[in-house]
Amino acid sequence: MLEAFHTPGKIEAGCDEAGRGCLAGPVVAATVVLPTDFYHPLLNDSKKISEKHRDLLRTIIEKEALYWAVSQVEAAEIDQINILKASFAGMHRALDQLPIQPDLILVDGNRFPTFRNIPHHCIVKGDGKFASIAAASILAKTWRDERMKQMHQEFPAYNWLQNKGYPTAEHRQAIALYGPSPWHRLSFQLLPADGQLKLPFDEPNTLIPSSKNQ
After folding, report:
1. Average pLDDT in the 175-188 region?
2. How far apart are CA 210 and CA 20, in angstroms?
3. Which is it for strands 104-108 and 67-73: parallel, antiparallel or unpaired?
């Protein structure tokens, strides 16, 4: 059972991000302020529920939350400032979009730079403990997945439709075959340091890049 709130009587904004460990695409951050009586039996850490349920919850959260916001930090900026700072920047930008100032910020993780001198609590695995953080994790994940599916249409060779930019063997194989796209994070180790790929595919040339990437 997720906790409905951390401190009674406070307007609490839960924050989380998605895509921190990816090789391509943005890191997406979200913040959500829920009614104190909000409850849905499926709500949980976005990693623990199916895509179908995440999409259902996104619709419910966007309709029933008191306030919510989403922001994206693109790969080029991630390369400039590093992924940790990009994650913090994304959450700050999402919070900055809220039409009200929360009394308390709940953040998934163990580090967070103060936003506007608002008190905050860092909660390890908070997306499985507090409803507002879980809701933020759902929005961050579903918005990012939607963006990766759109990007897949331009660069299908990397199969972002399935891997969403994460470092799967297939994704690394496509990078080895075709090089990085404009959406790859060049500051990340896109290929193994020893140059050795473990490729389980019999027909690597079935990965066909779009004409824009040739």
Report:
1. 96
2. 26
3. unpaired
DSSP reduced 3-state for 72 = strand
CA distance to 74, 87, 136, 188, per residue, from 81 (Å): 11, 10, 23, 12
The pTM assigned to this predicted structure is 0.90
Structure tokens that stand for 151 in this block: 């990007």
Q: Which of 162, 154, 102, 155 is nearest to 133 (CA)?
A: 102
| C-alpha–C-alpha distance, residues 125 and 174, integer Å | 32
Beta strands in the chain (DSSP E): 12-18, 27-33, 67-73, 104-108, 120-123
Cα–Cα distance for residue pair 168/40, rounded to 1 Å: 32
pLDDT digits (tens, 9 = 90+) for 191-210: 877 555 554 433 333 333 33
pLDDT in tens, 16-55: 999 999 999 999 999 999 998 999 999 999 999 999 999 9
Q: Does domain 12-147 have CATH number 3.30.420.10?
A: yes
Q: Which among 123, 161, 139, 143 is positioned nearest to 31, based on CA atoms?
A: 139
- CATH 3.30.420.10 in the chain is located at 12-147
